[in-house]
């Protein structure tokens, strides 16, 4: 991986013939069967195992994995390197990200960076732009994968060489087992169903749903020059996504650790990074104020 640019797609290598336009969506059996099994278990067992304790486990485990893992560990640290931290802390946050249950760290980086690269081009495949109707997009994103005719290549650099991340990539589904065992000891099968199956299901479906809306409709403050796909904010999802739903802001300033930029824009992910910074566990925290060169790529949406 080349020297990190906070606004670049750092894992992706664009070859001369690479194109994000031509390709086909095929069934992804691994993720399809996993996502289907989690949803089936939730729908079939959720009602009969429900209790206030199970609901509390669901809320706490979902919030913790989305905040520590998906938002801070995977997205703001591993993918965008929007702040620095000790290696042990990075690995702990990435482990929480793996517990979200969408996939392993390498798959998450490649999936994110392919979409990020494609949306910056003048045009891209409907899969990468979320252009299809909601039902089609849901099936595509949660049960399929895109095979491009002329794909770019990837170099994950030190992340790809890290033995712990390689282990997580091979065992991402099995990482739920110790969590399930601990929950079973705490509260039986109800805690397992709501703390694993329901949590994974709502995280996967929520990630797709907010991502779909964030590329279709909603408020816009910025437009990224020459990008074929622009982003929208999804204000109602700001708290459950830990600030990730301010997606228009993120497209404008992708290397920023702060995504909720304006008054009233809740961003729990950034608040957590600020806590780490005060404890001396995070440093070089990037915000738009320190990324002045990025402004040349942006236009105010209201002026267009």
Summarize the structure in short.
The protein has helices at residues 29-45, 52-79, 87-99, 105-119, 126-129, 134-143, 157-161, 163-171, 176-187, 189-214, 247-252, 268-278; strands spanning 12-13, 23-27, 144-148, 153-154, 222-224, 298-300. By secondary structure, it is mainly α.
Question: Can you put this structure into words, describing what you see?
Answer:
The structure is a single chain. This protein is mainly alpha-helical. The protein has one domain (22-219, 273-287). The protein contains twelve helices and six strands. It has helices spanning 29-45, 52-79, 87-99, 105-119, 126-129, 134-143, 157-161, 163-171, 176-187, 189-214, 247-252, 268-278, and strands at 12-13, 23-27, 144-148, 153-154, 222-224, 298-300. The strands form three sheets. A two-stranded antiparallel sheet has the order 1-4. The two termini are 36 Å apart.
H/E order of the elements?
Answer: EEHHHHHHEEHHHHEHHE
Total of DSSP H or I helical runs spanning 4+ residues: 12
Distance between the termini: 36 Å
**Spans where pLDDT lies below 50 across 5 or more residues:** none
Which geometry do the CA atoms define? globular
Number of domains: 1
The residue-averaged pLDDT reads 95
Instruction: List how many beta strands DSSP finds.
Output: 6
Largest sheet: 2 strands, antiparallel
Order of strands, main sheet, comes to: 1-4
* Helix content class: 40-55%
Strand content: 5-15%
Which class do the helix and strand fractions yield? mainly alpha
- Radius of gyration from CA coordinates: 19 Å
């Amino acid at each position: 991986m080349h020297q990190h640019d906070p606004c670049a797609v750092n894992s992706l290598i664009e070859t001369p013939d690479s194109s994000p336009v031509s390709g086909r969506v095929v069934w992804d059996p691994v993720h399809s069967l996993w996502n289907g099994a989690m949803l089936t278990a939730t729908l079939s067992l959720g009602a009969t195992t429900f209790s206030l304790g199970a609901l509390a486990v669901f809320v706490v485990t979902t919030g913790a994995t989305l905040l520590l893992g998906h938002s801070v560990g995977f997205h703001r640290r591993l993918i965008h390197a929007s702040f620095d931290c000790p290696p042990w802390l990075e690995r702990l946050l990435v482990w929480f990200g793996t517990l979200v249950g969408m996939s392993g760290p390498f798959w998450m980086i490649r999936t994110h960076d392919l979409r990020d690269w494609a949306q910056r081009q003048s045009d891209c495949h409907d899969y990468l732009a979320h252009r299809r109707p909601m039902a089609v997009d849901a099936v595509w994103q949660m049960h399929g994968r895109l095979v491009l005719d002329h794909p770019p290549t990837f170099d994950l650099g030190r992340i790809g060489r890290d033995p712990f991340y390689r282990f997580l990539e091979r065992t991402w589904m099995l990482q739920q087992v110790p969590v399930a065992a601990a929950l079973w000891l705490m509260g039986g099968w109800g805690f397992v169903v709501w703390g694993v199956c329901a949590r994974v299901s709502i995280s996967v479906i929520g990630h797709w749903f907010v991502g779909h809306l964030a590329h279709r409709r909603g408020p816009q403050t910025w437009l990224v020059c020459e990008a074929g796909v622009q982003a929208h904010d999804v204000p109602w999802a700001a708290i459950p996504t830990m600030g990730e739903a301010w997606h228009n802001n993120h497209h404008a300033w992708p290397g920023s650790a702060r995504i909720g930029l304006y008054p009233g824009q809740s961003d729990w992910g950034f608040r957590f990074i600020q806590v780490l910074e005060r404890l001396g566990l995070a440093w070089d925290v990037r915000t738009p104020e320190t990324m002045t060169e990025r402004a040349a790529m942006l236009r105010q949406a209201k002026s267009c």
